[in-house]
Amino acid sequence: MRKGDPKITDYSLKNGVIVTADKDPGVGAVQVQGNKLGPSGSGVAMDLGGVSFVYPALINTHDHMRGNYLPRVGPKPGTFYLTWLPWDNDLKASEAFMERSKILPEDIYFFSAYKNLFSGVTTVHDHFPQSFNRGILPTLPVRAILNYGLAHEASSYDLKWGDGIEVEHKRAVANNWPFITHLSEGFDDESMGGVETLERLGVLDNHCLLVHGIGFSDEDIRKVARAGASISWCPASNMFMFNVTCKIRKLLQAGVNVTIGTDSTHTGSCNLLVEIRFARELYRKLYGEDLPGKRIFEMITCNAARAFWLEDSLGSLDEGKLADILVLKAQKDDPYENLVSASMADIELLTMDGKPIYGELRFIELLGGSLPQGYTRITVNNRPMFIVGDPASLYRMAREKVGFKKLLDFLPFEPEVY
After folding, report:
1. Per-residue pLDDT reduced to its tens digit, 275-319
2. What is the CATH number that goes with domain 59-307?
3. Architecture of 11-57+316-402 per CATH?
């Protein structure tokens, strides 16, 4: 628990439709004891009235938390990139980058944390080396994982983050961490040979979380599946930059552990809820068939926890795991369809480590009956909400820095409205 956090007492959320991995959804209750899900409830009991769905909080396996800003920056109309590198050059020469540079990197990190929080995400990976982010990540209102091995990419022109692929991978294996790298994000010879590079270095295994994979061959997919590696699928960013995404149906048919990431808002969706809707629509367009809502649910919960090597503590609502809970309005009868069609306006409550970090005011009872220090109020879709931290002040500050009323689509409120 972070310094200054309110003391969390035991509580339960009862009479909700419980949706978790490996169990059929059904009306029931979740019990919170301290920061974990417990076997029995005591303390405050909140009745959800049978009209809310209760899920594990969502997990975003790929974000660039130093770079979440708008608008998107991409290729010239009618063209697409061959690799990520010309995009990086275009970004750094763009007006959006110059505008973003007026805001402190630490504040961009907080914007990124709220981007995730407002879409039901409590756990996210920031694809930057710990030398960049280890000071800021523990201060954020969501859980940005700190323990991972990292390479920017497996190419001669990558950004040389970390201590090198082999050292970073060895460290990940020794500590039961993921080893995370972009791979095959492009179509030059080096990008297309990414899997072979990891294989040659002896690091292609089940610790690998490989981001993008748009250049994978069928043989690459077989190798990734045999190794037990995971994939972070970022379809919106892929289509925007390259007009193609990974061979997602073949990856799923091969049994690869597929997760979903947003990438930064400079190329990807504004948040994970938008990303999963895009992913489903794209799958239908590509293959003429549906990507089941249950499978998407698994990608952003239990699959993602497995990819992060955190499946003992996250990804489902099982007793003993961390009490990361997402409560959504029941807009559809099917719980999986309800999730994949949800918007930011549908979130009723979000908890992390048992602590309510965002929710409707009726849930203040879980915080002791009044708004604790370190929380503020905002209005989302005409609903008064409590939230940890002060995103309204952050939003106002950014507008002052850039000199106009900047709109950021991942923030679902106006800071002047309370």
Report:
1. 999 999 999 999 999 999 999 999 999 999 999 999 999 999 999
2. 3.20.20.140
3. Roll (2.30)
